[in-house]
Write a structure and sequence with these properties.
Elements: E1 12-15, H1 24-34, E2 38-43, H2 53-57, H3 63-72, E3 77-81, H4 87-101, E4 106-109, H5 127-155, E5 159-164, H6 179-197, E6 202-209, H7 215-228, H8 232-239, H9 251-262, E7 273-276
Parallel strand pairs: 1-2, 1-4, 2-3, 4-5, 5-6, 6-7
The structure holds nicotinamide-adenine-dinucleotide (NAD).
Length: 283
């Protein structure tokens, strides 16, 4: 690639939840690396038996596989196992990234967890299901932002925080458990932190993907199908009727918006929540 087409040369990024083969996090990590950033590729450690069939068949090794892909393309990557709900692990991620790459410029809070409870009404949920969904989707973002903000301030060269919320964080939908309230709260956190970090030229924005073709979304379709006694394919195809552009997003399309928000082109955008949903929500 022509050097002047690499807007993130010399920058260092952290992407959470980036270890799944079909995930948005992997697409973000690959895209930021293509744009020139060194990337800490972080993922929740998973036992080999818990991997989906397509990952097992491919010999997938989570964050290490993504880091290998980046290295094969002459990029720089650091694979790290990380649970975003554990503040000590989050602090260690920040320290290891600085030790390896010398600085941090971009944090992408992508890790998320949908419907551990299955599709249930609120009053049918177990408390621990509710708290787990809030913990990963909201407290995980809190821990990572809290740990990176002092680094960005100390460096004194601005920075970018990009939080992956959801269409479910802009529009109430039934049977989304703790996921919807947490994703709404991520937008509130984004606005608050954007104001707090604006004097330091750190922008903070959220992206709200609509239905995106990943394992997580397939899981949601499967649980919806079980609840409605409909086959998976009927649900997956049926959803497209509600999307003006008539299809799910490809993870690379979400990564493209992250790349824009990480780039110098977006320096004057902060505190925003940007829908990337094929036209479902127009506000
Ligand atoms: P995914 O399940 O592939 O990715 C989520 C990642 O978060 C996984 O790698 C998972 O291991 C990781 N994770 C879960 N708990 C974690 C923890 N405690 N610590 C660290 N990592 C953890 O799903 P995805 O579809 O790629 O979702 C990525 C992000 O996009 C999520 O925040 C999700 O809520 C959001 N999102 C997805 C869609 C969609 O349609 N796929 C729509 C809107 C928003």
């Amino acid at each position: 690639m022509c050097p002047d087409l690499r807007p993130l040369d010399g920058k260092v990024a952290i992407v959470t939840g980036a270890g799944r083969m079909r995930g948005i996090g992997r697409a973000i990590a690959l895209r930021l690396a293509q744009d020139g950033a060194a990337v800490a590729v972080t993922a929740l450690a998973r036992s080999p038996v818990s991997l989906p069939g397509h990952e097992r068949e491919a010999g997938w090794r989570g964050a290490e596989s993504v880091a290998d892909e980046i290295a094969q393309d002459a990029g720089r990557a650091l694979p790290l196992d990380l649970d975003v709900t554990q503040p000590d692990q989050v602090r260690s991620m920040i320290e290891q990234t600085r030790r390896q790459f010398g600085r941090i410029d971009i944090l992408v809070n992508n890790a998320g967890l949908a419907l551990v409870s299955g599709k249930k009404n609120l009053w049918e949920m177990e408390d621990d299901e509710w708290f787990r969904e809030i913990d990963v989707n909201l407290h995980g973002v809190y821990h990572c932002c809290k740990a990176v903000a002092p680094v960005l301030i100390e460096q004194g060269e601005g920075g970018r925080i990009i939080n992956i919320s959801s269409l479910a964080g802009r529009l109430g939908q039934s049977q989304y458990g703790g996921y919807t309230p947490a994703k709404f709260a991520v937008i509130g956190l984004t606005q608050m932190l954007a104001l707090e970090l604006a004097p330091h030229r750190v922008t903070v924005n959220a992206i709200c993907p609509g239905s995106t073709d990943t394992d997580m979304m397939d899981g949601t379709f499967r649980r919806t199908g079980e609840r409605m006694s409909l086959p998976f394919d009927a649900i997956k195809e049926g959803v497209k009727r509600f999307i003006p552009l008539g299809r799910q997003a490809d993870p690379a399309e979400i990564a493209g918006v992250v790349a824009y928000l990480a780039s110098p082109l977006s320096a004057y955008i902060t505190g925003q929540a940007i829908n990337v949903d094929g036209g479902i929500l127009m506000r």
